[in-house]
Write a structure and sequence with these properties.
6 helices, mainly beta, about 425 residues, disordered N terminus, 6-stranded antiparallel β-sheet, globular, about 10% helix
Length: about 425
């Protein structure tokens, strides 16, 4: 997203008075330090009501970060701006040292979100005994207004344990295709891969998550992301509408997360959650967000989309007319059960919201926001403004090889929860956090 476009939103959207009433000295001090800060396996550098800070590493202030993704124990970063967009490869074992970089081609495009994905291909066995499935590892990077998706093939390094040259031990990537795409706004923002449905979830700065076919990048359906608002608060925040649901605009970077994989003891986690309650965390309905981000969710005027003749249509709430001649008056985002069998209750989409210091957790089937994580104290707005840094943007799950893990029983609760790398545009630091669920 352009740093100058829609600039007045910054003043409206950033409300530092809504930050949690916690001491931020340890967190903000790590932001201004030039050195990295890494915790031992069970040391927490800083605690907030929504996350625990585990590690702080350097991040280039020249990087206009548009997205993060992980593969093979390395973190990949896609950056933006015309003639400056890159893909960077970072090594978490070396304090996130940048070990490889590649300028985006064509160089005039404005890079946006990035995600790792894979494609399984059937090939003939060289021994002639039949066909085998070969997995190709790839990355895709969106562009902002160019309508191009850049497809990269990842090449794993050869297994050579005797080679002391670490430069040969990192995966490389090559551009293999440029694929055109279309979105609701004509722009590309964020993207994440859903492996078990073999789909991309995509944002374009609107209130929609677009669901794409991995091979063709054709839109199969779209979902309006909705925020439940209660009581009188609903009317004031939805522009006078009477609905208790409003649609959230300016969705940005996305990350698919299975929260169930992060918990080694779900029963213990549930027991402790019942004992501790919500510990003063803000509910979804209490999220204090300016109405410029919200639109009323109205009945009628729906989009009917289907991936092929064999799939039933998907209904989603829409604010504009489409070429589709088929309409319905069902409740907003009242999708059928087609995808419910593919997702478990622990699977979610995490998203940045442009110029909001939060992560939102979205149900991948209903597109309802189920949780809001407040990150406003990790690198406060006032300090960012002094440093010349821009907004929070960039989410990637910490892979198993990066996660330090371990610990005694007393710290078991601390070991549960999804760990993420987060950063922002022109930020001097990158942060490893554990979400408190």
């Amino acid at each position: 997203m352009s740093p100058f476009f829609f600039f007045f939103v910054t003043a409206l959207a950033i409300d530092t008075s809504s930050s949690p009433s916690v001491t931020t000295s340890s967190c903000t001090a790590s932001s201004s330090s030039s050195s990295s800060t890494r915790s031992s396996p069970n040391t927490i550098l800083y605690k907030s009501q929504d996350y625990h800070l585990l590690e702080v590493v350097p991040h280039s202030t020249a990087s206009f970060t548009q997205g993060l993704t992980s593969y093979g124990g390395h973190l990949y970063e896609g950056t933006g701006l015309e003639y400056k967009s890159q893909i960077l490869q970072h090594d978490p074992s070396q304090d996130m040292k940048t070990v490889q970089s590649q300028m985006v081609t064509p160089n005039h495009v404005f890079g946006e979100g990035i995600t790792y994905y894979f494609v399984d291909r059937e090939r003939k066995d060289e021994g002639g005994s039949g066909e085998v499935v070969v997995r190709e590892h790839r990355m895709i990077q969106l562009t902002w207004k160019n309508g191009l998706a850049l497809i990269y093939k990842i090449h794993n390094p050869p297994n050579n344990n005797n080679n002391n040259d670490n430069s040969n031990n990192y995966p490389t990537w090559e551009l293999i295709n440029q694929h055109s795409f279309q979105t609701h706004t004509g722009e590309g923002w964020g993207i994440t891969f859903i492996p078990h449905t073999n789909e991309f979830y995509v944002t374009d700065g609107s209130e929609y998550i677009l669901v794409w076919d991995v091979e063709t990048l054709q839109e199969k359906r779209r979902m309006a992301v909705t925020l439940e608002r209660g009581g009188e608060k609903s009317s004031s925040n939805s522009g006078g509408g009477s609905s208790s649901s409003v649609r959230l605009k300016y969705l940005n970077e996305l990350e698919f997360v299975d929260f169930g994989r992060s918990s080694s003891s779900s029963k213990m986690k549930e027991r402790k959650k019942n004992e501790n309650g919500d510990r003063g965390r803000r509910s979804v309905k209490d999220w204090d967000i300016h109405s410029v981000y919200l639109e009323p969710c109205q009945e009628g005027d729906y989009i009917m989309m289907k991936s092929d003749d064999n799939d039933p249509p998907q209904t989603t709430c829409s604010s504009s007319n489409t070429d589709s001649s088929t309409t319905t008056t069902e409740e907003c985002n009242n999708n059928d059960d087609k995808d419910k069998g593919s997702f478990t209750s622990t699977m979610s989409i995490l998203a940045n919201v442009w110029y909001q210091d939060v992560l939102i957790r979205i149900d991948p089937v209903t597109a309802k926001i189920t949780r809001v994580y407040d990150l406003s104290d990790i690198y406060p707005y006032e300090q960012r403004r002094e440093d010349g840094a821009d907004c929070l943007n960039g989410i990637s799950v910490v892979t198993t090889s990066e996660n330090s893990g371990g610990g005694d029983d007393d710290d078991e609760e601390e070991e549960e929860g999804v760990e993420l790398w987060v950063t922002g545009k022109w930020w001097p630091k990158m942060y490893r956090i554990r979400l408190i669920d």
